[in-house]
Write a structure and sequence with these properties.
Elements lengths: L1 H17 L2 H5 L11 E6 L5 E6 L2 H12 L7 E7 L12 E2 L5 E3 L10 H6 L4 E2 L2 E3 L2 E2 L5 E6 L3
Parallel strand pairs: 6-7
Antiparallel strand pairs: 1-2, 1-9, 3-4, 3-5, 3-8
Amino acid sequence: MLMKAATAAAVSVLVFAAAPPSQAVSPGRQAAADGPAYFVMTDITREEFVVKLTKSDDIRHARALISGETTERPHVITRIVKRTADHNPRWSFSNNPEATGFFDFAIEVCDATIPYVEEHLDEAGGAFLPGAHWCDWSSRLIREVPAQ
């Protein structure tokens, strides 16, 4: 029980540590004026997963990563939602855009590839991906796709 609490606390700290200071101070950032944006993420498996972003800062950062304007915080961290989304019909899970950000380094407890999350989705939120926090260490955005 103590181990689970410590793991959940560590993941919670990670989410705030992964965000730049302005994001950590004001978690209720404004939504993008033009609505959500969608980006294709891949990982070491070369599978593709569509990430929905709704916060202006996240959308700007994602576009800067794709254009090569920045290489900082290239990996995606989010809380998974255990249901299929219209923009991601291939997978039985999606990302929570309000709990999505970017990171350089993260703890191992939230690392998993896209297909591994799918294969073990029933275990996510427990010992596997505590709190449903997912931070695929090999994740990277490869392109933006039209709004769904």
